[in-house]
Amino acid sequence: MKPVLAVKDLSVTFRTEDGPLSAVDRVSFDVGDGEVLAVVGESGCGKSVTAMSIAGLLPRTATVDGSVELDGTELIGADKRTLRSIRGREVAYIFQEPMTSLNPVFTVGHQIIEVLRTHIGLNRQAAHARAIELLKLVGIPSAERRVGDYPHQLSGGMRQRVMIAMAVACDPKVLIADEPTTALDVTIQAGILDVLRGLRERLGTSIVLITHDLGVVADLADRVAVMYAGRVVETADVHDLFAHPEHPYTVGLLRASPAAGRHADAQRLNEIPGLVPVLTEQPDACTFADRCPRALDTCTSSQPQLTDRPHRVACWNPVREPVEV
Amino acid sequence: MAVADVTDALTAAPLRSNRRRVVRRILHNPLALTGLAVLAIAVILAVFANWLAPHEPTQTHLDRAFAPPGTAGYLLGTDDLGRDVLSRIMFGLRASLHVGVLAVAFSLVVGVPLGLIAGYFRTVDALISRLTDLVLAFPFLILAVGLAAIRGASLGNAAIAIGIAQIPGMIRIVRSETLRIKSLDFVAAAIVEGASDAWVLGRHIFPNAGSAIIVQATVGIPAAILGEAVLSFLGLGIQPPAPSLGTMLADAQQFASRAPWAAVMPGVAIMLLTLAFNIVGDSLRDALDPKASRR
């Protein structure tokens, strides 16, 4: 099956005062029709930059190389006009912070209606009716009344729902959700995840889910790409990844996240020592080597590449034995 | 009523209720109403001064000079040349409002777009900001004198000079608001949606900068009225004997101990006008802010 979104060898470099800074290094992944791909990793490992480069939100100091194909159309290096027509209709973005992602001076209905009118060309009545429909779709109670509310009159969870309603207003092929539940409390999180799952099932939207919450991943994702220091270090089917993590970093992430029932013996969670390195250049070594408990001599002298199997891993000494997480 | 009418009314509801809300908030605010009333009276007096003024504002009656307030026919007294203070205030209001509104309108028309552009497009920001600094560093009076030398001394030219002097402040306010709003997620969301720069500026940044612009404008009007007083005092503004509130105040200083009312009355008029503009501006800002609590 042809992927809806195909990212190939995507590299992002920022020009900084200390010279070029590599934020994303030759990242590749595909997202199929109706598939949910989770991109996970610690803060600063390039998840959001990857997402922003797909959406074209990077500042001018960033240089983007490689290829991002959306439904067969190349986005990197495309002219403004092409990008403008693709965005909004084909790609939608949900932000982490629901408090600032809606325009405070217009009602939420007005904002959804505006999107519908400009992108789909609906007339006023049709757009208004559709806006209420969309609000219902994302689970907002008494949508007829809420459509006239200003963003500040809604709670954070409600606003995130409105954001999702706006994002799917044009029936986009790909929805990029950049930590959509991070700013919300746990019960609201579950509701938002339900909404996303519903969208995928009902509209067949492909979702790129950026998160550092493995619980969210297990809940929603079909496939997972684990990122570390700007590179994809492991990618696999979600069940496979949770059952047989191969990269020591993935194992570390899994060990560092709480799971239901695991705290019975009040054991301390295992953290991964150290921090994600900031790279001014990609070294000839595994970037995880100095934090890795399984590091070999090869790890400090040569950079591992992703293996070519359904369960791909970039590691010189992958974990093959069953692990306790 | 046809079905289409009902749906039409429904869809129009958000916008209209917004306007209604603003009006309702103003009407429920006694302070705002007072300010509006003062402004309305000032505008009526100024516009209809020809008919409302009891005397010709430039007509001198040397035999009736320094008549105190309350003298028959001269409610607010007369000045050193026997001219009716009340009539002169009415015509003075006309000149002062004229300058105030014109100057601020000028600074809005030039300053708001430049501020938006400077804040939004980083490439031209440096250029616009340096030009702003240049205007700011240029002495206002020399600018006014220069303009008067080129275009002649008149009320309109005084307004332009004051307007130019107010442009840097307007640019800076709008620019900083633009920078602030630009970094908010809803602007990024609009960009992902494929919005053009013009759309982002017009629909997202400008409306959110509105309250700051309104405040700056309402502060600008009284400042312009006082600026006109300074320019007219130097002979660069309105030409005597035609009155403005500023020139009345300035002229009356020479005989302030003899006839204090000739200075106090226009002074009070300036104060009331300034106060009314500030109050109305403040309440307008509050009323336009959807976040302010509902009454």
From TrEMBL, chain A:
GO terms for biological process: peptide transport. GO terms for molecular function: ATP binding; ATP hydrolysis activity. It is a peripheral membrane protein. This is ABC transporter ATP-binding protein. It is found in: Cell membrane. Belongs to the ABC transporter superfamily. Residues 7-254 form the ABC transporter domain. PANTHER family: DIPEPTIDE TRANSPORT ATP-BINDING PROTEIN DPPD, OLIGOPEPTIDE TRANSPORT ATP-BINDING PROTEIN APPD. It comes from Kribbella sindirgiensis. Transmembrane segments: none annotated.
UniProtKB/TrEMBL annotation, chain B:
GO terms for cellular component: plasma membrane. The keyword Nucleus does not apply. The chain crosses the membrane at residues 26-53, 95-119, 131-150, 156-174, 212-238, 259-280. It is a multi-pass membrane protein. GO terms for biological process: transmembrane transport. The keyword Translocase does not apply. Keywords: Cell membrane, Membrane, Transmembrane, Transmembrane helix, Transport. Residues 93-281 form the ABC transmembrane type-1 domain. It is found in: Cell membrane. Belongs to the binding-protein-dependent transport system permease family. This is ABC transporter permease.
